[in-house]
Amino acid sequence: MGKATDHKDSDANVKVILFKSKTLADGSHPLMVRITKDRQRKYIAVGESCFLKHWDEEKNTPRRNHPNRAYIEQVIRTWTTKYASAAADLKQEEKPFTASSVATQLVKVIRKANLFDFIDETVERLIREKRLGTANTMKSIRRTLVRYEEHTNRKSQRKNGLLFTDLTPAYLDDFRVYLVERGLAETSMAVYFRTLRQIYNQAIKRSMVAAKHYPFNEFKVSQFDLRTRKRAISKADIGIIAGLNLETPRQLLAQHLFLFSYYGAGINFIDLAHLTWQDVQRGRLRYERQKTGHLFNFKLADSARSILEYYYPLTGSNMANYVFPILDRQKHLTPIQISNRVHKKIGQVNKDLKELGVLAGIDVPLTTYVARHSFATALKYSGVKTAVISEAMGHQTEGITQTYLASFENELIDEAFDNL
C-alpha cells in the first residue's frame, strides 16, 4: 500500500493519523481523524487503536506486520472518505465553515446509521479476530430484532431500516416484553441487552450516533441482574444424578459432562469439548481456557477420574484425541465449524439434562451452568472463603473465579476437592 492520500475537498484537509499524544491502557495509541481548515484542527476518534511498532509513520499506514492490517486500512479509507464527503457538501453550500462544522455535518448524515449494517460489520470483524462466541451472540440478536420488526410491522414502515436513534427506552422496553412473551429466560435477556448496549457504545465511539440519543441511561440493563438468584444444587442431588441408570448414549453423555464439570472445577462446556488426553497428566487436569487463554491446573477428584476411565477405551488411543465425543477432528476443522458444532451440542446436552433432572426429582432445571455453580457452592461449604469464590459463577464473577482457580496447586484446595 502506498502513502495515504490526503483529501483536500472544500479547502479542508482530512487524514486519519496515529494520535501519539494519547496512550491507552494497553500501550497502544488511538487512530483519529484529523480535519484541518484555516489552520484550525479538529480530532475525532474512529474507535480503533494501533501499537507504534505496527505503524509506519512515514507512510501514515499500518505496517505489514500489523495482525489486522487489511481491516485497519479499510477503517482509514472509510472514515477519510466520509469526512471528506462531509466537507465537500459544506463547500457546495458556498458558506464559510470550519473544521468543527465538518464533524457536525457528518453527524447529521450518520444519524441515519443502520443498526443491522453496523452489526454485520462488527460480526465480520469478530470472525476475523476468531471471537466466534461474541459473533454468534450478535447474529442471534440481529435475527431476533428482525423478527420483532416484522412482528410489529415496523420493518415495512422504515425507509432506512432500523436506526440507532430508533432504539429509544420505550422501544427497548417493548422489545423486552416481546422476549418475555416468547418465554426467553432472563439470563438470555440479560445477554441480549448487555450486548445491545455494547453495540451502542461502540457506535457512539465511532461517531455513528450522538451520545445524547443513548437509551441505556433510562433503560437499565441492571434489571436483569441475576447475581442473587441461586442456581446450585446440593451434594445429595449430585449423588442422585450420579446414581441414575441411563440407557441412551445421549443421556449418558449428558450425565457424564454434567458430573465432570462439577468434579472438574466447574469447567465450562466449550472447554469440555476441547479437552484432549494430553490435558490429563498424573491425576491432574491442565488446560487453557478457550475464552480467555487462562491456564488451569488442579487435582482430579476420584469421581472425575472414573468418568475419564469410561472414555479412555473409546477415545484414548491417541493423546491428541478429544476426551469427550463432541468434536471430530475429521469433520470439524475450521473455527466456524467447531463453534457451530459446540453451539448445537450444548443445546442438545442441556435438553437432555432437563430430562435427567426430572428423572432425579430435582426442581432446578439442569444445565451445564448449574454444574459450575454447584461446584462453587460445594467449595464454599468445604471451607473456601467467600471472598475468594462466590456462590454465583456467571459472567459477573468469572474474574474472581479465575483468580481463585490460578492457585489450585496448593494443598488446601486439593483437600477441598477430596470433599466434593
TrEMBL record:
One of its GO terms (biological process) is DNA recombination. Belongs to the 'phage' integrase family. Residues 228-418 form the Tyr recombinase domain. Gene3D superfamilies: 1.10.150.130, Intergrase catalytic core (1.10.443.10). It holds the Pfam family Phage_integrase. The keyword DNA-binding applies. One of its GO terms (molecular function) is DNA binding. It comes from Spirosoma arboris. Residues 117-204 form the Core-binding (CB) domain. PANTHER family: PHAGE INTEGRASE-RELATED, PROPHAGE INTEGRASE INTD-RELATED. This is Tyrosine-type recombinase/integrase. It comes from the Bacteria. Keywords: DNA integration, DNA recombination, DNA-binding. The keyword DNA-binding applies.
